[in-house]
Structure formats: structure tokens, C-alpha cells
Amino acid sequence: MTLGIIGGGGWLGRSIGAAMLVKGVLAPANLILSSRSGRVEGFDAWPEVQLTTDNGELARQADVIVLSVRPEQFAEVQVDAADKLVISFMAGVSVDTLVERTGSRRVIRAMPNAAAEIGQCYAPWFATAAVTAADKAFTQAMFEACGSADEVAGEADLDYLTGLVGSGAAYPALLAEAMLAHALARGISPQVAENAVRGVVVGASQLLGRGGMSPAEMVQAMLDYRGTTAAGLQAMLDAGFKQAVDAGLEAAEAAAQRMKAGYAQPRR
Questions:
Q1: What's the rounded Cα separation, in Å, for the pair 158 and 166?
Q2: Residue 190: its H or E element
Q3: Residue 141: which of 25, 15, 12 has the closest Cα?
């Protein structure tokens, strides 16, 4: 099976393509990467990988076509998929629009994120009725090469998860930024403050899910301990932490829905 990635020079297409080669999901000769420059970094170890600037040629050769471009660039991408499997990584571009623009009924919308680069990506995906069991197995294997994935029941679920999952490291980064600013304001040296924050947000968060505890159980266990952690957690909760998170996720979902309406294409 030949996989073609349009936008293969971008961080997401490049990361997922490389992960599939490393894990043996795909042979190098069966990977085609398209980029505007015709050059893609990070594939020197696999000279058999094909590089192109011609999306039409990629579409003719590939059995599976991945769209890994920014949504606003999609209007410039001309692809005749001829009912091949099309997998889109674009936020806000609906299944109906993808079907109309590519000519394929076998369409999967997915929302991977930047953690694909380190093999820690979680990618929810939604498939049209025409997608086969073999298509779904290939898609799952592609995402498991760089993390994990789940098929979701409806496109509305994917619209919501676009704001939750697609944001990748942005939400932890926001928490880290707030913590770092507070530590610096208290006179902690920049190096110590940054190391401490990274230890919390990146390091200690790896405990989440260990030992079978759910997030809610972990928070409650810390609250029940009634130590300094409990005092900090309770103050954050009292200040409206959960409400702020709710507002952020709802705003992200609304933005995804507006994008989908904006990128909708008329029928041919």
C-alpha cells in the first residue's frame, strides 16, 4: 500500500510519516511526501522515500492520501482521490466538504497533535460509512505508530475533540506559564523556577493514570490528605479553575464549528 502525504514537509505530516517508517508500518518506497519546495527534512535515512511538488501526481500514485495542510490552504489543493482512502488532519474541514473536494466517499477526519513528534500523540478519528474495515485498521496502525487513537461515533464528537486534543501542548504550556510567572514574581531564580515548573507539568504529570487512579480520584486523594497540595488545589478550585477550563474548551469547540461552516464547499 502506498501512502501519500500532502503537506509532508510540515511538522505533523513529517512526524507521522517518519514514525510509520521507524515502526515498520510502511516501507520507505511506499511513502510519497509532497511539499512546495520538494524537500523534506529528516528522511535522509530512507532514500527510497519519494518527494514531489505535484499533488496531482501524488494522488495518482497513492492508495491512501493524507491531507496535512492548514485549513486555509485547502482551497489551493487540487486532489482527485477517485474514491481512494482520504485521511484529513485539518481542523474545521467537514466530511461533506472533503467528499465534495476530493471525489472520494472513503473519508476519515482525524485530529492528531504535536505530540506525534515524540510518539505521544492521541488522535481521535471519524469515518464515513464507505470506509472499509481495512481502511480503519490502516488508520489505527498509522496513529499507533506515534501514540494512540480511537474511532469516535460522530463528527460532532470530533468537532469537540478538535478543541481538546488538537491544541496539543498549548494547555499545559498555559499552566506552566502561569506557574512560572508566579515563581518569578516571588523572587525565585529563572533557572530554578523553570526547572521546577517543568518538573511539575512535564515530569510529575506522568503519574497521571499510574496505579489505576482516575484524574478525579487523584485530585480527591490529594484534597483528603489536607496538606500544602490540598490548600493549593482548593484555592484554585475556589477561584474558578474548572469554570475557566469549561469556558476555554467551549470556546475552542465553537471556533471549530465556525471553521467548519466557513470552509464548507458548494456541491459540484
A1: 10
A2: helix 190-198
A3: 25
Taking the C-alpha atoms of residue 243 and residue 247, their distance in angstroms, rounded to an integer, is: 6
> What does the pLDDT profile of the chain (268 residues) look like in tens digits?
899 999 999 999 999 999 999 999 999 999 999 988 878 888 999 999 999 999 999 999 999 999 999 998 998 898 999 889 999 999 989 999 999 999 999 999 999 998 999 999 999 999 999 999 999 999 999 999 999 999 999 999 998 999 899 887 899 999 999 999 999 999 999 999 999 999 999 988 888 877 778 899 989 988 998 899 999 999 999 999 999 999 999 999 998 888 888 777 554 4
Question: Cβ neighbours of residue 88 under 8 Å, at least 6 residues apart?
Answer: 66, 67, 98, 107, 108, 109, 110
Q: Which residues pair with 151 in a beta bridge?
A: 125
pTM: 0.89
Order of all β-strands in the sheet with 107-110: 50-52, 31-34, 3-6, 64-67, 85-88, 107-110, 121-127, 147-151
